[in-house]
Amino acid sequence: MKTVSDRLASLAEPGYADFQAKLIPSVPREKILGVRLPALRALAKEIKGDDEAAFLAALPHGTLEEDLLHAILVGRERDFAAAVAEVDRFLPFADNWATTDILRPKVFARHADETLPYIRRWLASPLPYVRRAAVGFLMAYYLDGNFDPGILALPAKIPQEEYYVGMTVAWFYATALAKRWDETIPYLRDRRLPVWTHNKAIQKAIESYRVPPERKEYLKTLKIK
Question: What is the pTM assigned to this prediction?
């Protein structure tokens, strides 16, 4: 019977791995197999029971694709406590933006109040990709139905020196501008973000089709030179 690693290897495309290596520079090329996301999602549907438990227990993994598959499997966990435990166990091993950005446990949206204390703890992590994941959870689950204005202050407070942390914080505020303009615009108008994050958030908002043209023109006046 093929192991998960064997099945991933059979789906590998070296040319696609070369392409991914350019997009995800924090992962060494030799750790990238080149398995496309639809194939990973299809494989995740086939892994169940003891095979899933054994795979999730085998941390750290040796390839990017194993990490991505792990994140997909954790994302489908329906039990809230189990999902938190799995995220807690997995996040310290995350070493790239692709893994953190695919990690989206749907159960968190149904338990927003219970999830928030854990997100606050992850935001305080010394590990940059743990912080990136936490900002991603805020962006995915708290800018729509679970919105509270206080949520907007959280990403602004975390260390953002690492490129992939600053980028996701900028992405968060650009998304918030599209969804919650009135509550979010003071963060740009009053310059509450680091300069790089401030300007990148404006850039992303201007590039977004969800922000009306007149608001984009106003955002241009808020850029810090």
Answer: 0.94
